[in-house]
């Protein structure tokens, strides 16, 4: 049975990488875990400390660390963060910081409806050829909405008697 800290480790290990199994974590996600869980506080533990500890516990040519190496890294960071605590308490305190945490997508751009933006993006008000690019619900038709369909009938557009050639020449 895996602990809460181990669940958090696996969530962050797989974050942003669809091919990851979640069994090992890279430096970027390790730093994100430390930020999101409050291990990095900017005073006793900062980004540089996290990078140094990660490099120290990982194997020479590896890019990731496993759960055991992760625990070693937490112990080392915990010694900086909780200087007055005993070494056997440190890992428990670090796990407590990780409890019920999951990766948050920060810095994600949200749509802003300022001034004319909402008016310009309202597809129900489009006219002419632009209106043909969207269906009734306002969803874009993609390439079908952009392509001009050409009729290869041999007649110029707008010709009233199109298709009557064979009838006239009999």
TrEMBL record:
Give the GO terms filed under biological process for this record.
microtubule bundle formation; microtubule polymerization; positive regulation of protein polymerization; regulation of flagellated sperm motility
Region Disordered: what ranges? 121-170
Keywords (alphabetical) are:
Cytoplasm
Ranges annotated as biased composition (Basic and acidic residues): 129-151
Q: What is a single Pfam family found in this protein's UniProt entry?
A: p25-alpha
InterPro entries, alphabetized: EF-hand-dom_pair (IPR011992), TPP/p25 (IPR008907)
What molecular functions are annotated in GO for this chain?
tubulin binding
Q: Which cellular component, as a GO term, is one annotated location?
A: cytosol
Localisation: Cytoplasm
Family the entry assigns: Belongs to the TPPP family.
State the protein's name.
Answer: Tubulin polymerization promoting protein family member 2
Species name for this entry?
Vombatus ursinus
Tell me the organism's taxonomic lineage: Eukaryota, Metazoa, Chordata, Craniata, Vertebrata
Q: Which gene encodes it?
A: TPPP2
